[in-house]
Amino acid sequence: MKFFRKALLTVLTFCVFVLPLSSMALTQPEGASAPAGESEHYVPGGVPATISPVEAMVPALHGVTLAMLHHGDTALDAGDTGLMWECLYNMLSLYGQLDERSEPQGDSLTFPAELVWDYSAALVSNYRELGPLPAALSDRLTYDAASDCYRVVCGNDELAQIQVRTVRTEGDATYLEGALVYLVEQTDLARFQATLQPRDTMFGYAVTSFTLR
Questions:
Q1: Alpha-helical runs (H) found in 72-176
Q2: Cα gap 24→129, rounded to integer Å
Q3: Measuring CA to CA, which residue among 73, 22, 67, 72 is closest to residue 157?
Q4: What CA–CA distance (Å, rounded) separates 191 from 176?
Q5: Is residue 148 helix, strand or coil?
Q6: What's this model's pTM, rounded to 2 decimal places?
Q7: How far is CA 32 from the centre of its chain?
Q8: Spatial contact of 175 and 168, defined as CB atoms under 8 Å apart
Q9: 201 in helix, strand or coil?
């Protein structure tokens, strides 16, 4: 059973970390996560959310869960920029097509930089904390300075779903417990606990702690 579960997680991870397009033309300049110019004054996530924290934060919860499973981590370390970029990539590849600012191009999506910063605000307080794009993602997430756009190779995780089972609020903090569920058999692939704090951003909240168990 343990072998089956491990194999299934590998398959689901591969569905997200799909092979890159051979025609990828964008390049990754040094410091791509903080493009120079007028856009540096942009405030990430300028649109307050109007839905519940659970609904708003499903993309972040899903992205973090998959990244942590891939890295073999049990607690989210916001200082691990490689991990945080992977969380962000998962969010963009699985949910970016729902944003009207995205442009589909075959098996990839192109986003204006501000969209990427909006998504990053659900994970970090300042997108510049992420630093340059890591080499490990260069085949899936790239930045073009000329157009100030990112391009992401789309992923697919239709076999699994984030399900939040308990929600508790104390002061400003919202505490969640849930699982990544394999839909075919309705079994838990991983269970998580997360803490959300309200933010004046597009998602309305940010993940401030996250553990897998």
A1: 81-95, 113-120
A2: 26
A3: 67
A4: 11
A5: coil
A6: 0.79
A7: 17
A8: yes
A9: coil
